[in-house]
Amino acid sequence: MWAGIIAGVLATLAQGVMWWIFIDDILNPLLRDTQLTAALVMGEAVLPPPIRFSPGIMIVAAAIHFVLSIFYAMLLAWAIHRQSWGMSLLTGVVFGLAIYVLNLYGLTLLFPWFTEVRDGITLAAHLVFGITAAGAYQRLARR
User: Which of 75, 77, 124 is nearest to 104 (CA)?
Assistant: First the structure.
């Protein structure tokens, strides 16, 4: 569970830094992504435009993000629990790529609004998630 929370936070921070570096904007893509995510539960009525801040949308999106982060980290932990540190990190990168493909190509069959975030920054954030979840799990499991 903690590995998922840690990885979810770090992947989000990494994504924010990449937005700042490459598109010079953190707020608009963050608010857009929260609306896209919240729409999974709240329906298409919350989809942008306009891109806006809403505490309710932010809470729902954060809850979805962390539930998925914990779930994905639990799947990854099951896969790597007997692996070496290096192999776990490699598996984490592959896992991050796999959940990127699942989330942004598979689930877009049901939720087509996610096609707009198929980009290098989102891919990199998923890779950060995978490697961080693997490293955090191995670190916490070996205490």
Answer: 124
State the amino acid at position 129 in one-letter form: F
Averaged pLDDT, 100-127: 96
Question: How far from the centroid of its chain's Cα atoms is residue 61's Cα?
Answer: 11
H helical segments located in 27-84: 27-42, 55-80
pLDDT in tens, 63-99: 999 999 999 999 999 999 999 999 999 999 999 999 9
d(CA 76, CA 30): 26
In whole angstroms, how far apart are CA 16 and each of 19, 22, 23, 50, 90? 5, 10, 10, 20, 24
Per the structure block, which two tokens stand in for 87?
């192999």
From the list 118, 117, 133, the residue with the least C-alpha distance to 30 is: 117
Name the token pair of 123: 């891919």
Q: Is 143 helix (H, G, I), strand (E, B) or coil?
A: coil
Q: Which of 117, 123, 120 is nearest to 47 (CA)?
A: 117
CA distance 66 to 53: 19
Residue for token digits 């490699």? 90
Categorize the per-residue pLDDT at 142 as very low, low, confident or very high, splitting at 50, 70 and 90.
Answer: confident
